[in-house]
Amino acid sequence: MDRRPAIKPGPDLRQADTGRDDSFDSATDGDGFGRLDTGVTGMTGSSIDTLYDLGLPMEALGDDTEDTELDEPVPNAERLVAQAMALAGDDHDAATLVGRFWRFAPDEELIGFTAEEMLDAARAHRDLAQQRVPGELKLRIHEPDAEQHHTVVEIVTDDMPFLVDSVTALLNSHHLDVHLLVHPLVVVRREPLGRLTEVSADVEPDDAIAGDLVESWMRIEIDPVRDPDEREKLRRELQRVLTDVREAVEDWPKMRQRALALAGELAAARTSDNRPPVPEKDITDSVELLRWLAHDHFTFLGYREYRLVDGDGKGPALEAVLGTGLGILRSDSPEARSLSSMTPEAHEKVMEKRLLIITKANSRATVHRSAYLDYIGFKIFDEAGAVVGERRFLGLFSTAAYRTSVQELPVVRRKVAEVLDRSGLSLRSHSGKDLLQILETYPRDELFQIKTDDLYHAVTGVLRMAGRRQLRVFLRRDAYGRFISCLIYLPRDRFTTQNRLRMQDILLRELNGVGVDYTTRVTESMLARVHFIVRTDPTNPPGDIDADLLAEELADATRLWDDDYRLVLERKLGDEQAKHLFARYADAFPEGYKDGHTPYEAMKDLAKLELLEEPGQLEMHLFRKQLAPRAGGDGAGDDTMDVRFKVYRYGEPMMLSAVLPVLHSLGVRVVDEHPYEVDRIDGRVFLYDFGLCLPEGHQDLAEVRPHVENAFAAAWRGEAEVDGFNELVLRGGLTWRQVVVLRAYAKYLRQAGTVFSQEYMEHTFIAYPRIASLLVELFEVRFAPGGLTAQARRQRSGELVTAIGEALDDVASLDQDRILRSYLTLIQATLRTSFYQKRAGGRPKSYVAFKLNPQAIPDLPAPRPKFEVFVYSPRFEGVHLRFGPVARGGLRWSDRREDFRTEVLGLVKAQMVKNAVIVPVGAKGGFVLKQKPGDRDEAVVCYKEFISALLDVTDNIVSGEIVPPEDVVRHDGDDPYMVVAADKGTATFSDIANEISTAHHFWLGDAFASGGSAGYDHKKMGITARGAWESVKRHFREMGHDTQTQDFTVVGVGDMSGDVFGNGMLLSKHIRLVAAFDHRHIFLDPEPDAATSWDERKRLFDLPRSSWEDYDRSLISEGGGVYPRTAKSVPISPQVRAVLGLDDDVTQLSPQELMRAILTAPVDLFWNGGIGTYVKASSQTNAEVGDKSNDAIRVDGKNLRCRVVGEGGNLGCTQLGRIEYALTGGRIYTDFIDNAAGVDCSDHEVNIKILLNTAVADGALDIAERDELLAQMTDEVAELVLRDNYDQARAINNAQAQAASLLPVHRRMINELERAGQIDRALEALPPDEELAVRSESGLTTPEFAVLLAYIKIVLEREILAEGLADEEWTTDVLVNYFPTPMRERFADRMAQHRLRRDIVTTVLVNEAINRGGISFVFRVVEETAASAADVIRAYVVVREVFGLRELWAAVEALDNKVSPELQTTVYLDTRRLLDRAVRWLVTNRRSPIDVPAEIARLRAGVVRLLPNLETRFHGSERESLAAHIDTMAERGLPRELAEQATRLMYSFGLLDVVETAATSGRDVDEVASVYFVLSDLFRVDSLLSKISLLPREDRWQTLARMALRYDLYAALAALTAEVLDSTADSLSAQERVQEWEQSNATSIHRARRAMGEFDESRADLAALSVLLRQIRTLVRTSAAA
């Protein structure tokens, strides 16, 4: 019989041993806490398997040890024993003891043992046995130390039966696994008092002789017992059990004799006068049974006699007879047990006049085996026939009792015979044989205890089941009311563990059970049998039991699932469809599924399963499961605990680790999970059944069910992210798409620099789901297409904003209030969104674009762009910043997921100033990959979606008309201009962008992204590097070095495969590249040959995907090499030390140290062509730089020792780092100045394509012809672009030449820009006024001038574009000249219709005016004259054309590397003086707007006539000054002809007055000029002008005073000229006319000359000059009056 516990092992509820209780009820009616009661609750001593069974330490449980590492080789026990014996050496007794001790130890139990340990164990046991008298127990339990994983129990006792069984049974009851058990029988000799004298380990126990003792030595290793109290408890119980064994063994013969004596006594009493008053069969059964038991069919464990006595007024009581106890009942129990304290059944049984009692005690045996004790009692009667006592035997039926035929068993055979006779069946018949077989297999314990009548009904009931698939239950109550026997027969295929547990639960519930045991019998028969013994609570016994109802409930619980499933299908679908689906799914569902689901539930699942057709397809089902009512329950409970969520997936399994985060993100807790595999014919479906606990405050499940299912599917498909926002589906009733809106804004806020984490934002919305719903509704009202008019949108939006504001009043936390209000601000600042656009299939797009108005978002960091598009997707995020309607800049693949907007904002600042040279203002975009960072294929996919998203919210132009994007509600004006360019990571993506543009039918076509296959390849052109090289050449020219003809040393960042570095290092064959590094290698060539190294660099440049590793080592000079950046150290040769300027003791450096040394090397040029920021200011921290990857190698600007820095790459230096370097004398501009050629080239390409595409659209050109034309113009486009680089570098150097003298002007200009909000002084690292005051001798640095240059252009372009200058007809020539020659020749007539005509014209004019006139040129004119900027530009064009300045400028530029740069700068500044004065003259003397063509026509002819021989027109000191200036310039190296031309221009400003006077007077310009210059000499005008120029201009008023004096002087001279001309005869010479005029105005002239004399003796300050000019003006008035 296989008896197992029917419920899971739990805590040991048994009471500690408090003494023996051998009262009657301990065996028949106990309450579970008696001395023998060890299992009333069914908590048996089954072992719990845990990892501790392996003997592993706790730390090992958390280790990642592979399972294979836990497998140790199994040792050879014999070999180990032999080794241990050998270790004993001369100790023969120890050697033989080891052999005896371990000889039967299994190999597998000796894993981990050593021979030394085995020897020590045997000796330790011998030590334990040193002193012991017979009958004494020696027991020792070792305390395990921290490193021991077993507790050792050592026992020495007399040899007797049942020792091992009893001890292991006790250990199992304590859930202690036995890992090692050796129990040798050892023959010993002892002194009378027990001292061990000899261990005869080599003597077999059977060979022991007189004087020998046979002892049982047991060593048991069990799970560690570390608690001292637990060890003490175990020791006591082991001692008790072993005492029980000893007592039972010692008294066994006596108990057997008592049985035989009692049998004889009863046999004799049968015929005596004292015959018991019981049926004859009782006596016969008793005699046979006693004799049968005594013949080794019963293990006698205890015996005692009892007498019925008066119970001290409490009625009869049962009392043990002193001295009658044997075995485990040897101890006397003086207390009597009142019958009234027993159950009614037990009370009745005690007094019943039946001789024999056969039942089960309600306690388990402690000896032999842990089974419930068999209790056999024989009542004692007095002479009156009343029950007066009992003789009781306790023990266990032997196995023979279970093997013997029922026809031979005492007591049982009589019952069997009566049943067979009563059945009337012949044993030769089939039914008779079946009936006998039923009886033979009937539970033996039941046969002994059951009444014959009950037995008959049970076995005939089983017999009638033959061939029937049904369930029958046969119940029998224990005669003492302690348990109910439940014998259940059921179809064999229904017998499963699951069904057994179901039956068990039903029986415990219906019978008020407190514990249960079971045995099973499963044979080839159709029926299986389960015998349950349900222990009941005596204080709460079950009432009447309806066996039929119980059987029905058990049948329902165990019914065959398939049968019910077919029935459900037939009822729901009809026979035909049911048959089809049954065949499809009956075998498809696994047994585990059937065990956990009713057929009706399977029917629900089938509806979902039938929807699955495609691999990977997903279906979900969220529902409440109808739970069975609990007994005694009121039906109320937690309604969230019965929520189930099922996921069905076809063909592909789902990892639980991936599913659980999705569910948790919805706010639910997963309380259980059951996966199933449904194997259909067409494939496998994976079904996952989750039990969910919904969050508090969730919406009604019926309302949100589809939302939850869709949200899960979206998250699983990757359409929605897995985060806390998903909880709003349950809490707020939002759809997953509505949640996307809130999530996207959270992502934007994180990029915008909010201090709140996304998790905190999630918690905020979860706490206020109503506000979340209101915000989403506001978003929908503003942007959901269709339905509402603009007025209705505004009205409803206002109502919602009010409602949100009221709801926000209830938000307690200030931080949460800020979060929610920032959302409200963002939604209101959103201008457009692509949220409502759908893909072709009708699904939402996988990304969402939000076009924002940054000016309406106060928390954004500066600078704030004009427009911003944020693109959100689960796969990527991106941002595009534009500082104007027409803007351009690259899109980069960023790796800064946490702050890519910060990166882009930093880049767009550089782009803004870089774009000052081109038509569009600055823009920049960037995107980051979220799922597969670094994966190029993923980057391409995300780039495509990013581009598409940008176009989704951009207007288009169709047939000249603006077409808004579909399904986009616009809250801004028309905005059709969107262009992009390549950047880091997207260098080869231009064609991809243009394909998308074409697919969108975007009006720009492939002009959308420059640099594609049908555009200008920047790397092939080398345009970015060539542009930066213009700056490098300018720097070196300023130092008197020609980079194209003279060698110079270089260090750099980058490698030859890169565009900027590779092209840059090929721009001169005199480059001596001594060191460089990129992200992979460090290159060292300390003494390179310029020509040879150039050839090798060219080879690497032409080699696809080359690196420094490909450099020919044989060409590297001595001491050099190529080293990986991953090396631990790099050897430093003497040559490298010398070229890098390292100390003599440096012999090796780490790669980081070496790269820092390269950056600070004392070379001519540091060329940055890489990615990263390598130079900062000493005042900056690395964290402020924001480029963590290069923190280890970054250096300070003041530590750079190179002479020049060329910034081909972006952000190589911080602006403060540049300034710090420049202040130490280094030559540097900025990255946006140096590498502007790339963006300039792209802008030319776009503008050219916009024009040519109109020709393509009209059919005047096809695409192939257009592309060919583009290619033909490549070189000229490059020239146009490089011209801009050249001009900007020259402009900065010219500004540097006047840095000190114009510092007050620059300071005022910076302040004015800052006051107008046009520049953030701190952000652009422009020095504060306090620092400028200290720089009075040096002024601004070139990097600072670069910033000013760019911002002045940006501000001017914005202002002039609004004034309409570009619409004037004369600007057409400006537009035409912007384009290359082939386009001017073929398409000039189309240029006026160019969509960016105004922008191009404005950009060209502003660039030229500032580059030529100077950074402060327009500012000073506007400041001094209050003219508009547009008029200043108009005046500039007039002056340029009137005086022919372009010819002079070209001649000076042609002298590059021929004359000193200082000389060239002098000429530029001299012409700039003419520009300044002539422009002021024009804006002062002409009405606005200045008519450019008219003014040119009015002035140019006269100036052209007078200018060529201007030096001959001056007189006296002025002519001498002019000639001296010519001589000086010629002496400095300027060609004389050019010196004359430049000097004439410098002195030519007065020609404007001459021409103007000639025009107003109608005189010839020669006539006017001759008088004008005589008067100029007379009044020493040139000297006075020089004195005026020396006046300070610290503030605006001083500047205005200077200008007033200068123009008053010129005006007076012009007026005097007119007076002389009008008052003298034309026939006279100029000298004569002036002399005649002098005579006529002698007095006034005398006063003026006297004033001039006094002036010569004065300080020539403002006061003196003012007085002098007053005298001259007075002379004009008196002369006119005369």
Automatic annotation (TrEMBL):
InterPro entries: Aminoacid_DH-like_N_sf, GDH_C, NAD(P)-bd_dom_sf, NAD-GDH_cat, NAD_Glu_DH_ACT2, NAD_Glu_DH_ACT3, NAD_Glu_DH_bac, NAD_Glu_DH_HM1. Residues 472-562 form the NAD-glutamate dehydrogenase ACT2 domain. SUPFAM superfamilies: Aminoacid dehydrogenase-like, N-terminal domain, NAD(P)-binding Rossmann-fold domains. Residues 1338-1673 form the NAD-specific glutamate dehydrogenase C-terminal domain. GO terms for biological process: L-glutamate catabolic process. Residues 14-23 have a biased composition (Basic and acidic residues). GO terms for molecular function: glutamate dehydrogenase (NAD+) activity; L-aspartate:2-oxoglutarate aminotransferase activity. It comes from the Bacteria. Residues 98-238 form the NAD-glutamate dehydrogenase N-terminal ACT1 domain. Residues 1-40 are annotated as: Disordered. Residues 618-702 form the NAD-glutamate dehydrogenase ACT3 domain. Residues 804-1294 form the NAD-glutamate dehydrogenase catalytic domain. PANTHER family: NAD-SPECIFIC GLUTAMATE DEHYDROGENASE. This is Glutamate dehydrogenase. It comes from Micromonospora halophytica.
